[in-house]
Amino acid sequence: MAATQGFKGKVRIGANEVIDLSSWELEIEVADLDDTSFGDSWTGMIPGLKSWAGSFGGSWNMGDTNGQKALQDALLNSTPISLELYTNETNFYSGTAYITSQGNETPVDDKVTVEFEFTGSGPLTFT
Length: 127
Fold this sequence. Notes:
The protein is mainly beta and about 130 residues long. The chain contains one helix and eight strands; from the N terminus they run ββββαββββ.
C-alpha cells in the first residue's frame, strides 16, 4: 500500500471544514479487564469498553465562524459536535465528540496557534 500524504487531511464539523488547521491526532483504545482467577499461573485479560480521543490544531482563526469559533462555542457550552477526521480526500474517521480543551499560544516571533482536544461519545467509524 502506498503512503498517504498528510497534506491531504482535513477536519470537518458537521458540513463545515475547519480552516487553518495543520495537524490532527486520534487515539483509539480498548480497556483491559482482568480475568484472572485464583490458581491461575498467568494473568488473564478480556477486552472491555472502547474509547477514542485526540486533538487537532493549527493557526488561530476565530473569523472561521463555522469552524474554529464553532469549536470554541461547543467547548464553552458543553455541546457535542459531529466530527470527521480525514486522512485523504475519501477516507475519514467520524463520530460524535465533545471539545474538552482549547489551548492558544501567542509567541512574539511566530504566528498565533490554537489546539483543541476532544473526547468521543459513542461509536467511531471509518469510511
